[in-house]
Specification:
Layout lengths: L8 E5 L4 H12 L3 E6 L8 H5 L6 E5 L5 H11 L3 E3 L11
Parallel strand pairs: 1-2, 1-4, 2-3
Amino acid sequence: MIQETPTRTALICGISGQDGSYLAELLLGKGYRVVGTSRDAQMSSFENLKRLNIRDQVEVASMAMNDFRSVLNVLARYQPDEIYNPQKAWDTQKL
């Protein structure tokens, strides 16, 4: 009997950007289930995902990295095996 390897789930924070969308494409090609977050997923156009023809293969959720509850909700709902955060680094001196 052949045992299938369970699909791994990757969570990409800030998937609407260039790096996030290319990472999604790479992970989809490796057979991952990809979940991407944006501050407002209902309003985001996800143009980069559309340009790569992968928008329909990616699940999206709203999540603000500075909102503890929204982060916990996404983690509980999608239970990712891996988490990626390719967003621009913050300038801590401006915070």
